[in-house]
Each structure stands twice: as C-alpha cells, then as structure tokens.
Amino acid sequence: MIRSDDAFLLRFLHAKKCNLDKALKCLQNYHKIRHEMPEVFTKVNHPNLLKNVIASGVLHIGVKQLKNGARVVIYRTGLIPSDASILHIWLLCQRLDCSQKSTSC
Predict the structure, then answer these.
(1) What is the pLDDT along the chain (105 residues), one digit of tens a residue?
(2) Quick one: which of 22, 41, 30 has its CA closest to 4?
(3) Which CA distances in Å does 24 have to 12, 14, 33, 46?
(4) Contact 81/37 with Cβ under 8 angstroms?
C-alpha cells in the first residue's frame, strides 16, 4: 500500500525545502528502498519487533523544538542491537516524530 496522505507527502517536501523535483526524487528513492528492503519496514511497521531497540537507549529525540521547529536527535550508534541497523533507527525516529505538526511551504 502506497501512502498518499498530505502529512506523509509533506515530510518529503519539507525535507527538500519545498523543491518539488528534489522531493519527488526523494519519494521515489523511499519507495525503491521500501521495495528492496521489505524486512526493515516490516520491523518498523510492527514496533513490538523493535522493543529491544527502543529499550537500548540508542535513540534520543529532544522534547522541545528549536525556534525553527526542528528537534535535536541523538543516535548512539554503539548501542544498536545486533538484530537492528541504523536504517531501523532512522525509520523509527521518523515514525516517532511524524505525529508533530508541520509547517507548510
């Protein structure tokens, strides 16, 4: 299933500073990786499979936003469990932070 809701698509647009061509390329790359590495997304879509990652303390997301709306994220890569990857951590971070309201372009 391909998501096409506004909040999801806006994440790509914001990531590329509202440049439509770059946002489209980023979205295409996302779907390419999703197709090539389904096992990574399976774990992220079922957070109970990543309980050990969450408990490991590998990811810290700042509680307060900066003036520009960004958050400070700290990855402690030395603590990544052997059954996870940095891609799991990054995707998990995206899932945790996507509930935040975003600004429009």
Answers:
(1) 678 899 889 988 988 999 999 999 999 998 998 888 888 777 777 767 777 777 888 887 777 888 877 778 888 888 888 878 888 777 777 766 554 544 444
(2) 30
(3) 8, 11, 14, 27
(4) no
